[in-house]
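Students often ask why we bother predicting the structure of a whole assembly rather than each chain alone. The short answer is interfaces. A chain on its own may look different once its partners are present, and contacts between molecules only exist in the joint model. In this exercise we take three input lines together and write out one structure for the complete complex. Read the inputs first and try to guess which parts will touch.
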Amino acid sequence: MGGLPAGAIPQDGHDFALWEKRIDALMVLCGGKGLFTVDGLRRALEDMGEDAFEKHSYYERWIAAVNQNLIEAGVYSLEELGQRMAAVSRRGATYGEAQDG
Amino acid sequence: MPHDHHDHFHHEGLSPSGHPYRSDNDEPLSYWQCMEIAVRELLIEKGQITPAEIAVQIDAMDARSPANGAAVVARAWVDPAFKQRLLDNAGDASREMGFDIGPLNLIAVENTADTHNLIVCTLCSCYPRNLLGLPPDWYKTREYRSRAVREPRAVLREFGVDLPAGTTVRVHDSTADMRYIVLPARPNGTDSMTETELASLVTRDSMIGTGLPRQP
Amino acid sequence: MADRVRVKSMMPPGHVRAPAYLRGKTGYIERPLGAFGNPEQLAYGLKADKKPLYRVRFTMAEIWGDDAENPSDTLDAEIYDHWLERL
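Now the answer. The structure tokens for the assembled complex follow.
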């Protein structure tokens, strides 16, 4: 996107929430263990298209990229992911309630 | 960093900057939060990572802040030999001060009377996070990444930095394996200040290049 | 005399670290950075060759032409050897 026309830079910020810090930690830890590379994450982010940049927040895009790379590395299957996400959703309506235990 | 407990939830409360974290734990579960929980649980069950490793990594990132970079800058302001080592290899100079920056490849670029440096990553959001902590939100925006390489002076004006026409602006796009930190110029009128006092003048933005150090 | 180089202007699809706005632009090598794994292989889970990496300095006039905000300001970027042509 370097050099493309764009508007004023939004200067409001936020401190990171726990789920965002966890995604950041998963990125670093999985990279350190050789499950994927930062280049693999960037490739997955780019493949989401320009659209994703507008529609999703930073760490939303990064968990999608982490998941894409873990699937490609065979760490778990799509079936396992789908079943687990369904189970997580059934635990409760909020992030706190959806934790295991 | 000292680390004496592995409670997952002890990061809540106040951030290092003194702001409450977003109260995400009692808002409706989003699709992406659901994915984060599922991915994390699967990684743990498969034996790839442990909850303790996640807690330690979050602590390590929380412990990194612009204050680390400010200490490095202040040292360079008072110690010419250290400044030379910083300009030769900023990663090793930071490690010499005891900062755990992992494998970070860091280059320091020096602001002078006639040169101003500005850091950006147009391809993603590369930032010297292992020294300064996580980047500010604006650094990751489309607006900053698009414009910093094309109209850096206009961007600087939005951040309140109006450079004389005679100053050369050097923009650094972190496109690959290096990360960058700006060594700001030491403000005038600080001759009698201690290294610790000097560090308090060094802002995060002054090390990205979108700001200048505070005046004493 | 500094090494003058031009960034290749090819536009293959996929993950590439040479920014599009610098393709075909001429600059000079500001410093060599050593050799790093080729991101074009790493991004696809392939075993990566080590490729020399350089910091290349461009003038804003070279990149943006008459639209440059201040022609003599500069931009540095890290470009892999296989994306550079020596002039």
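Check your guess against this: The domain at 66-208 of chain B is CATH 3.90.330.10 (Nitrile Hydratase; Chain A).
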